[in-house]
Amino acid sequence: MARYIALIDGEPGGFGVVFPDCPGCTAMGATLDEALAAAAEALADWAEDVAGDEPALGPASGTRGTLPEPRSVAALRADPEVRAALAEGAALAVVPLILEAGRPVKANLSLDAGLLAAIDEAAAARGLTRSAFLASAARAKILEQG
To answer: Tens digit of pLDDT for each residue in 74-113?
Structure first.
C-alpha cells in the first residue's frame, strides 16, 4: 500500500489538504480529522481518475494506468514549494492510498468466540453485516495509523 505525504494548513473550521505528488488532488474539512478523512477519499478518487481501473505505481506519472511514486519526506522538504508552505505554517501528514478493487474476496479469519460475538452485536446495532463492519473497522484503523 502506497502512502503519500500531504500538506495541511488552516485553522479550526477550515483545514485544507494538498498532495505535492498528486497534482490537483485536494481536500478540506472543518477539523483535522475530517480533513484527513476527506484527504484519504480524495486520494483514492484521484488515483482512479488518473490511472483507471488497474492503477500501478511507476515513474511515468501522467501516463494512464501509472501513478507517481510517492516521494520521501526528505525529498519533499527539499522541494522549494513544499519548503515555502512549511515555512508559512503547513504541516505534513501521511495518507495511505486505499484502492477499492470492486470485488469481494473471502478471507478465513480466526477470532476469539467472545470477540466474534461482540463484533456481530456491534455490526447488528449499526445495521451492517459482519464483513462490512470488519472492513469499515480495518479501514478506520489504517487511516488512523497513516
So the answer is: 999 999 999 999 999 999 999 999 887 778 888 888 999 9
Q: Would you say the C-alpha torsion 91, 92, 93, 97 has a positive or negative sign?
A: positive
Q: Please tell me whether residues 20 and 68 are part of one structural domain.
A: yes
The domain of 72 spans 3-96
Length of the chain: 146
Task: Let me know the angle formed at the C-alpha of 44 by 21 and 71, rounded to the nearest 5 degrees.
Answer: 25
Q: How many domains, in total, are found in the chain?
A: 2
